[in-house]
UniProtKB/TrEMBL annotation:
TM stretches of this protein: none
Protein name stated in the entry: Type-4 uracil-DNA glycosylase
Lineage, top ranks: Archaea, Thermoproteota, Thermoprotei, Desulfurococcales, Desulfurococcaceae
Database matches in PANTHER family: TYPE-4 URACIL-DNA GLYCOSYLASE, TYPE-5 URACIL-DNA GLYCOSYLASE
One annotated GO molecular function: uracil DNA N-glycosylase activity
Organism: Ignicoccus islandicus DSM 13165
């Protein structure tokens, strides 16, 4: 059931041209399901490599994220982005672009009914929580939110691209991912 739902969203994302980003992208990048998706990770937008391949988190930041997920033993994971197309010059998505893609994000959450959502970076935390606060203020905190009738905890951490640029964020990033996965396991 959830696989069919995610597949339907995927097809819509692949044909979407609801904003100007479709003019600049190579490929839209729908989310990727591994297992049941009980741990749900949201990034900002596709990078260059993701745009080329049409898959989320496959560049340097993605390698770090996937390695961290392997290290903590996370298997039931869904990885997506707040915005499904790469903005030109790798700029931060605008609020309008985030809002245009938000229905996809809410439907992804409704389909999978995750136990925990991890917001990877400020753009993802804005898309999920609607607050524009510094990552320093938000990181490591747990927020309760509801999306399409699904109540879920949201944990905010660094985007893996920030970790690649600033290795001092590596330990807190890994701690947050481990904590999120432990929470998923604890919730059964």
């Amino acid at each position: 059931m959830s696989q069919d739902c995610i597949s339907a969203i995927r097809e819509e994302v692949l044909s979407c041209c609801s904003c100007e980003l479709c003019k600049y992208r190579t490929r839209p990048v729908p989310g990727e399901l591994m297992g049941s998706g009980k741990l749900f990770l949201v990034g900002e937008a596709p990078g260059k490599r993701e745009d080329e391949l049409g898959r989320p988190f496959v560049g340097k930041a993605g390698i770090l994220l996937r390695k961290t997920l392997d290290e903590v033993g996370a298997k039931d994971v869904y990885i997506t982005n707040a915005v499904k197309c790469r903005p030109p010059n790798n700029r931060t998505p605008t609020r309008s672009e985030i809002e245009t893609c938000k229905p996809y994000l809410i439907r992804e959450i409704s389909c999978l009914r995750p136990k925990v959502i991890v917001a990877l970076g400020k753009t993802a935390s804005y898309a999920l929580l609607g607050v524009d606060r510094s990552l320093k203020e938000m990181r490591g905190r747990r927020f309760q939110a509801e999306y399409g009738g699904v109540k879920v905890d949201v944990i905010v951490t660094y985007h893996p691209a920030a970790v690649v640029r600033n290795p001092k964020y590596l330990l807190p990033f890994k701690f947050d991912i481990r904590r999120a996965w432990e929470e998923v396991k604890g919730l059964g």
